[in-house]
Design goal:
This protein is α/β, with parallel strands linked by helices and about 210 residues long. Helix content is about 35%, strand content about 20%. It has one domain: TIM Barrel (Alpha-Beta Barrel). The protein binds ligand LARABZUK.
Length: about 210
């Protein structure tokens, strides 16, 4: 059986990055989006990125940024993965893909089966789709779950991951229902918006790994 991939998103302190790595996270997400309570500047993101050991992937999350600032952010932070969580088009991601060896992920807000069908326009432009709840107050990180039953019998044509409202208490059931091999959480491991809880990070990683 292949290893469960676990992304802990929205980390903003050295202590919580270290805790997530120690707990067995395979991906660490850094959110560069000013309206988010998890926002980190490019300087902070670059510093946090340097703490992440080679075996763990650093994911830089950007939202609907113009081309030039996107390139500057990638140069500043040097992530392993860039996760686009806004209104980025497949055409733009395809152009970027020609100029970078980074893994490119595209978040998809899932409302219904049509959302899954429409996401296929990112085939060839993104390396992975990250299914999340549809945008709420923020484009992501709202602690809202999507309807897992939509993924239960879906024939996936691209690598994918599951996000949205996952917690230490529900992640095992989410994996059981959807068959996800990559799970992503942010609010579910926080004590308040933007404040990560080390015990919850550990509990989430354990529950995901043991499922
Ligand atoms: O986390 C944020 O604040 C955020 C802001 C803007 C766009 C995306 C954001 N987070 C994206 C993530 O990868 C989250 O882990 C994902 O949306 C799940 O969040 P949650 O439902 O809070 O677990």
């Amino acid at each position: 059986m292949s290893e469960m991939m676990i992304k802990i998103c929205g980390l903003s302190t050295p202590e919580t990055v270290d805790a997530a790595v120690d707990a067995g996270a395979t991906h660490i997400g850094l959110v560069h989006y000013e309206p988010s309570p998890r926002h980190v500047s490019l300087e902070q993101a670059a510093q946090l990125r340097r703490r992440i050991p080679e075996r763990v992937k650093a994911v830089l999350l950007l939202v609907s940024m113009e081309a030039q600032p996107t390139v500057e952010a990638l140069q500043a932070v040097q992530p392993d993965v860039v996760q686009f969580h806004g209104k980025e088009t497949a055409e733009w991601l395809a152009v970027l893909k020609q100029h970078t060896s980074l893994e490119i992920w595209k978040a998809i807000g899932v409302k219904d089966e049509g959302s899954l069908e429409r996401a296929l326009k990112f085939r060839g432009a993104a390396d992975r789709l990250l299914y999340d709840a549809a945008a709420g107050k923020l484009p992501g990180g709202n602690g809202l779950a999507l309807d897992w039953s939509l993924l239960a019998h879906h024939r996936h044509e691209m690598p994918w991951g599951l996000a949205g409202g996952l917690t230490p208490d529900n992640v095992a059931e989410a994996i059981r229902q959807t068959g996800a091999s990559l799970v992503d959480t942010s609010s579910g491991v926080e004590s308040e918006p933007g404040v990560k809880d080390v015990d919850r990070i550990r509990a989430f990683c354990q529950a995901a790994r043991e499922s």
